[in-house]
Amino acid sequence: MTARLLRFGALAMLLALTGASHAQRAAVQPQPLKSGLEFTGAEVRELQHDDFANPGMLWAARGETLWQEAAGREAKSCASCHSDAKTSMQGVATRYPRIDAGAARLINLEGRIRECRERRQQAEPFKYESAELLGLTAYVTQQSRGMPMKTVIDWQNRHNFEAGRAMYYRRMGQMNLSCAQCHQENWGKKLGPETISQGHSVAYPIYRLEWQTMGSLHRRFRSCQSGVRAELLPQGSPEFLDLELYLAWRAGNLPIETPGVRR
Hints:
By secondary structure, the chain is mainly alpha-helical. The chain contains 11 helices and 7 strands. The chain folds into 2 domains: 162 residues, Orthogonal Bundle (Cytochrome Bc1 Complex, Chain D, domain 2); 85 residues, Cytochrome c-like domain (Cytochrome Bc1 Complex, Chain D, domain 2), CATH 1.10.760.10. Helices cover 42% and strands 7% of the residues. Strand 5 and strand 6 form a beta hairpin.
């Protein structure tokens, strides 16, 4: 924790020295778009590209098992409705978060899995950050690996997009920093031994060496909020979903990498 606070303190000093602008509020994609993998070392890149060495594959394998397991009062599995995920789930993750037609609200892939558990299988939904939810999300998302994001902003999700954009540029916490100050205005710069990435979400759920486990994008959001000493929002909160939508758009056509590996 001390090392993390020192890194964020160094970041605050870097932003002060570089005179980062806080007035910019436009929806902007970094140019050129770069995967977070490009800002890591060779060892991490090798881990992600090798399915036998990638630790995230352990969670994806657990998800594959869960896909076939019957659950709930309906005694149905995911495969009961969707058959072979390797076929039926191709490209699905490229379209999330999206508006759920039934509930008329924004939902991400984790939310869709929880909803299916509750509505279709009549089973207890998996808890956020549980090994089960991370595994099943990783397995489903893996079926879109290598496929470009296809985020569409329209009249249904425009207000969510605008709210996510506002949050991305909003200063927060005792350190008074925004997401944009790191990942939009200072990507590629050194922060201690690390290089600031563009902060894309295409590798989540992700195995982080810092965590020594798999984690969701919302866990990463909370980690950043903790780093700037801001109030932590709950996983699955509307604010995080809006931010997730903005990041999905911001990633443009970058391909999905799940399960990703980062430091």
